Amino acid sequence: MYALPSVELLAQGLAQIPGIGQKTAERFALEVAAMAPAKRQAIVRAFEELENRLIACDECHTLAESSPCPLCRNTSRNRRQLCVVETFHDLVAIENAGVYEGLYHVLGGKVSPVAHCSPQDLFLQTLPQRIRELGVAEVIIAASHTPESRITMELVKRSVLSAKTNTQVTFFSSLLPVGAPLSICAVDILKKAFHARKNAIDDQLNAM
């Protein structure tokens, strides 16, 4: 067996990416190793740039290169609407769907005993304060159609109610495919799920 420690180390790193198995990671690592030095260096510089520039927005907690992020700074966004999402991936999916013009609140994950993620690991504590400060009229809960997401979003609902405002709580409809991450849903499905929320009321959350 012929193996290079540096290539194996790269494969181990690539295997940490969700959706990439060990075999695929090993193949990618071999491809990178076989590249011309200039191409490898370009990839290295891209990773270094990513590491040096990425931060979390102090307001919405999304990934950004400045804080506040461009979405939070954008005065043309509807500050009376706040969309709560689990991850940065979900935010990107909704933005790409072009269906929403308000602000976001990124939780940073979902409650999952398997992933060792508890409510204390999420950005829930800052939500009531943001609702009060922004004068939010509607909180839109955008979650995947999974048991973990339902538990997480029930916590979001309680957090919204703790703000003691007249904020309306709505959520993406059950048009989302069961078990699939919101971030991989087709644009037309996201649009339909977003618009269908208009017929939802906050006490229907458990019926998702």
From TrEMBL:
<dbReference type="Pfam" id="PF13662">
    <property type="entry name" value="Toprim_4"/>
</dbReference>
<keyword id="KW-0479">Metal-binding</keyword>
<dbReference type="GO" id="GO:0006310">
    <property type="term" value="P:DNA recombination"/>
</dbReference>
<keyword id="KW-0233">DNA recombination</keyword>
<dbReference type="GO" id="GO:0008270">
    <property type="term" value="F:zinc ion binding"/>
</dbReference>
<dbReference type="InterPro" id="IPR006171">
    <property type="entry name" value="TOPRIM_dom"/>
</dbReference>
<keyword id="KW-0863">Zinc-finger</keyword>
<keyword id="KW-0862">Zinc</keyword>
<dbReference type="InterPro" id="IPR000093">
    <property type="entry name" value="DNA_Rcmb_RecR"/>
</dbReference>
<feature type="domain" description="Toprim">
    <location>
        <begin position="80"/>
        <end position="177"/>
    </location>
</feature>
<comment type="similarity">
    <text>Belongs to the RecR family.</text>
</comment>
<feature type="zinc finger region" description="C4-type">
    <location>
        <begin position="57"/>
        <end position="72"/>
    </location>
</feature>
<keyword id="KW-0227">DNA damage</keyword>
<dbReference type="InterPro" id="IPR023627">
    <property type="entry name" value="Rcmb_RecR"/>
</dbReference>
<keyword id="KW-0234">DNA repair</keyword>
<dbReference type="GO" id="GO:0006281">
    <property type="term" value="P:DNA repair"/>
</dbReference>
<protein>
    <recommendedName>
        <fullName>Recombination protein RecR</fullName>
    </recommendedName>
</protein>
<dbReference type="InterPro" id="IPR015967">
    <property type="entry name" value="Rcmb_RecR_Znf"/>
</dbReference>
<dbReference type="GO" id="GO:0003677">
    <property type="term" value="F:DNA binding"/>
</dbReference>
<comment type="function">
    <text>May play a role in DNA repair. It seems to be involved in an RecBC-independent recombinational process of DNA repair. It may act with RecF and RecO.</text>
</comment>
